[in-house]
Design goal:
Blueprint (H helix, E strand, L loop, with lengths): L16 H18 L1 E3 L7 H24 L9 H21 L8 H27 L6 H8 L16 H17 L5 H21 L3 H4 L8 H22 L3 H16 L12 H17 L1 E3 H8 L1 H13 L10 H31 L3 H8 L11 H6 L4
Antiparallel strand pairs: 1-2
C-alpha cells in the first residue's frame, strides 16, 4: 500500500479530467458564493487585496497541480505564472500605499525580515526532516545555511523547497525600493529610477554564470515597479478608465482583448512585458468587483494565509503527496486543500510566536534589560500580522 507518492517519474492519469475539474471548480465557486457579503470599502483596500491574493493562491495550486502531477495538459497550466504576477503586483502596490517613495526610516527591514523569514525557517526545518525520512534525500550543510539566508544555488528540482526562490527575489525588490526612496529626487524621477534598477538587476542576473539557478524571476521584472506605479497613480488611472467606460459592458471589451493578447503572446525577448497583459484585466475585474460591492470571506481567508500556503503547498504536492494520487481526485483534492489550510494556520501562529519572542525586540528593550528594567515584549496580535502581509 502506498502512503504517499513523489512526482519524479509518476503522474496522475485522469480518465475524465473535464468532469473531475468541473466538480472541483463548482465546489470552489460555491464556497466563494456562499461566503460573499456586502462591502462598502474603498477600491483596492486591504480586504480587496487579500481577496486578490486568495485568487492567486487558487491559481497557484491548480497551476502546479497541472504541471507537476497530471499527465493531461489543462487550461490552468499557467496558474503558477498568474499567481506570481498577482503577488508581485500587490507587493509593489502595498509598499507604496504604506511608505510612498519618501525616505524610508524606522522598522522597514525589521518588518520585512520578521514577516518573510520565520515561516521560511520553520518550513526549511520541516522539509529537511521529511526529505531525509520519507524520500532519503540529504541536503549538504552549505545548501542549508544558504537557504536559511534565503539564497538558492542548487537546481530547482533538488531544492529543499523549490518555490522559496520568491523570498530571495522579493527581498531584492525591497532593497531596490528602499534604496530608491533615499534619493533626493521627485517621485516621478524615483519611479523611473526604480524601473531602471529592477531591469538592471535582471540584466545582471541574465548575464551572470549562475543564470540558470536565478532566472526564474526574470520574466516578472516589470511587475513590482508597475505595482508601485499603480499605487501612486491609481486614482487617476481608475478615473480615466471609468470616465471612458461608464457602461459596465464596455469594461469587458479591453478585458477580453488583454486576455487574448496574454495567451497568444509570442515566445521572444518581449516576454518580460507579457505580464502587463494580465495586469490590465486584473484592474478591470477589480473595478467591476467594486461596483458589485461583494467580498468573499473564503478568498480573504486564503489571502491572509497566502504566504504560508505558498511555502507549504509545493513539497506536499510534489515530493510527498499523501492525498492527490488517490481516487476520486475531486474528493482528495479537498482533503489536501483542507490539510494545507490547517498547516498554514499553524505555521502562521508559530511564526508570530517566533516574531514576538526573538525578532521584534527593539533596541529600547535590550537597553532596558541591561539596565535592570523589565523588558516589554511587543504585543503583536494575529490580525495586525495579517494586515502586514505582503502577498
Amino acid at each position: 500500500m502506498h502512503y504517499f507518492v513523489t512526482y519524479s517519474n509518476y503522474q496522475i492519469d485522469l480518465t475524465a479530467p473535464a468532469i473531475t475539474f468541473g466538480i472541483i471548480f463548482a465546489i470552489i465557486f460555491i464556497l466563494i458564493g456562499i461566503t460573499c457579503k456586502r462591502n462598502s470599502n474603498s477600491f483596492f483596500d486591504t480586504q480587496t487585496t487579500a481577496s486578490l491574493r486568495g485568487v492567486g493562491v487558487l491559481c497557484l495550486l491548480f497551476g502546479h497541480l497541472s504541471i507537476k502531477c497530471l499527465k493531461q495538459e489543462m487550461f490552468f497550466t499557467l496558474g503558477g505564472y498568474w499567481a506570481v504576477i498577482i503577488f508581485l503586483f500587490i507587493s509593489g502596490y502595498g509598499l507604496y500605499q504604506k511608505y510612498q517613495l519618501n525616505n524610508i526610516r524606522g522598522s522597514f527591514w525589521e518588518k520585512r525580515i520578521s514577516r518573510l523569514y520565520p515561516p521560511l525557517w520553520i518550513t526549511l526545518v520541516l522539509f529537511i526532516c521529511l526529505d531525509y525520512f520519507l524520500i532519503n534525500l540529504r541536503h549538504p550543510l552549505q545548501e542549508i545555511l544558504l537557504n536559511v539566508l534565503g539564497i538558492y544555488k542548487t537546481d530547482m528540482l533538488i531544492r529543499i523547497n523549490a518555490v522559496a526562490w520568491f523570498v530571495t527575489y522579493i527581498m531584492v525588490q525591497y532593497l531596490a525600493y528602499w534604496l530608491i526612496s533615499k534619493l533626493p529626487l521627485s517621485d516621478i524621477v524615483k519611479l523611473i529610477c526604480l524601473f531602471i534598477m529592477c531591469f538592471s538587476i535582471a540584466i545582471l542576473v541574465y548575464l551572470s554564470p549562475r543564470k540558470n539557478n536565478h532566472s526564474m524571476g526574470l520574466q516578472y521584472t516589470i511587475l513590482f515597479p508597475v505595482g508601485v506605479l499603480f499605487g501612486k497613480y491609481q486614482k487617476q488611472i481608475i478615473t480615466l478608465i471609468t470616465k471612458h467606460l461608464r457602461n459596465q459592458i464596455n469594461l469587458f471589451k479591453p478585458l477580453f482583448i488583454s486576455l487574448v493578447i496574454f495567451y497568444f503572446w509570442p515566445e521572444n525577448i518581449l516576454n518580460i512585458i507579457r505580464p502587463l497583459a494580465l495586469i490590465i484585466p486584473i484592474i478591470f475585474i477589480l473595478i467591476i468587483y467594486k461596483r458589485i460591492n461583494l467580498q468573499s470571506t473564503f478568498l480573504i481567508f486564503l489571502g491572509n494565509y497566502s504566504y504560508e500556503i505558498y511555502l507549504l503547498h509545493g513539497p506536499f504536492m510534489v515530493k510527498y503527496d499523501f492525498f492527490l494520487f488517490r481516487e476520486p481526485l475531486y474528493i482528495f483534492f479537498f482533503v489536501y486543500f483542507a490539510s494545507l489550510l490547517i498547516l498554514s494556520r499553524i505555521l502562521s501562529q508559530a511564526s508570530i510566536l517566533i516574531k514576538n519572542n526573538f525578532l521584534m525586540l527593539s533596541v529600547e528593550n535590550i537597553k532596558n534589560k541591561f539596565s535592570g528594567e523589565k523588558s516589554r515584549t511587543p504585543d503583536l496580535n494575529v490580525r495586525q500580522a495579517q494586515v502586514d502581509k505582503f502577498f
